[in-house]
Amino acid sequence: MKFLIFIFVVGHLFSLGSGKAIYKNGISQRTFEEIKEEIASYGDVAKAIINLAVYGKSQNRSYERLALLVDTVGPRLSGSKNLEKAIQIMYQNLQENGLDNVHLEPVKIPHWERGEESAVMLQPRIHKMAILGLGSSIGTPPEGITAEVLVVTSFNELQQRAPEAKGKIVVYNQPYVTYAETVQYRVQGAVEAAKVGALATLIRSVASFSIYSPHTGIQEYQDGVPKIPTACITVEDAEMMSRMASHGLKIVIQLKMGAKTYPDADSFNTVAEITGSKYPEQVVLVSGHLDSWDVGQGALDDGGGAFISWEALSLIKDLGLRPKRTLRMVLWTAEEQGGIGAYQYYQLHKVNISNYSLVMESDSGTFLPTGLQFTGSTKARVIMEEVMKLLQPLNITQVFSGGEGTDINFWIQAGVPGASICDDLYKYFSFHHTNGDTMTAMNPKEMNVAAALWAVVAFVVADMEEMLPREDGASVLPSQKV
Asked: How many C-beta atoms lie closer than 10 Å to residue 70's C-beta?
């Protein structure tokens, strides 16, 4: 199949031999209509990918591959033997799949373990509570911390009632708005409570829905502020204690946490490629993270994202396709601790940042997608809208804003276009960071569709003659030059 060569204005003069745009006097030599025509010419390829992934012999493959890993290895916490076992298994799997340049890139990652933990309400009644300590939390003394509770619904209320907080366990019963808005209580709750003299914090889980399920996650201490133990409790217990407090009842809790932080551990980002046929030095990156929290199986977060990224390369390889640019898959390590593996990858590879056309990360579930989230220039967005039209056979063509992700934000902030799957976040945050994050939450048919979307977008962007433009000039309209 032959494709026309289309030229974009990207702010600098590049040679055609590098696969980047040539322009004259700031004006591209190709029209938007020609760009649309090039993208539309991938219709048959897109249909072949979709048919193989959704209806053909590869259907359910990503689900079955994922189930085998998480059922046999289990959760994969940063610094754990489970994570390193999973990395070695994936390294072998990718080699056996016949992908190019399969290798491991060493990184140093945090090593924290929760140990034994419990929380028991002693007053006004005996009640054993379900808790999950938060990542990087310190432990309690062996005898635990027994103290009265102060229930607040916000940081503002905590400040207003600061004199009451000293020597108490602060319980946050913040309402769930969105994950991005509400997660600040999990991340910063211990620090804010310690500033007013609290002994520990118990934080209402950041969840869209709960069946008495605590949700763990990372939290951050602050230099100069005392470190206090911190854990998440269920929505149900947080609301119950809020009601108790509203009636003036005294609440006393005994909290025990055996959490410990160890020296940083050795780990790896896992990499595999389909080498580009014409511009192998240029990259379209697809990714998910292989680590998880130490509860459930890490199936939803982020086994699904990691395995549809593998599946995207497998589908393209199965069809005998080789894009002009290199398709690189990275399975990140220690994402849950703040994108540790991804940051070290960025530091190692940013010298070649001009060669990255698009960075893609799936880390919001692999349920039935509603579209693609994208962050980039206006011109790049218009191009991506044309690419997504190729998903019409699946009726998934929308391009939304917000393509960021923990592991690709370093690239996006430096100007590289970024993309992620738009998914059912209500369902995702019902299972997120819980014991319920298992294969039971996954759907093989929905994973097939997510993998097809991922593969079509990755292949087309990697195979178009020009890289995605990073800079905006004049608005891109069908009748204009770009």
From this structure: 25
